[in-house]
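ok so I'm stuck.
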Amino acid sequence: MPPLPLPDALQPPVLTEGDVSRIIEMAWADGIPFEAIRFQFGLDESAVIRLMKQSLKTRSFRLWRRRVEGRAAKHGRRLQAR
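replied:
not stuck anymore, here's the structure
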């Protein structure tokens, strides 16, 4: 039996090469929170992490993860709570 199709709301967005490039640029930028990427492209933080892992070289991905891990500026909601 084939898998059931996902509802439109759960479908991953179709991204162009330009979209992927812009998401990577936004993810590297210190002042742009993950919420801005979600608003513009419909990708949550875990989807951005997966995209970065697929798109970057292993060493670049590790550097990026160390850079954004725990960084308050990348998590707008956490900033507003303080």
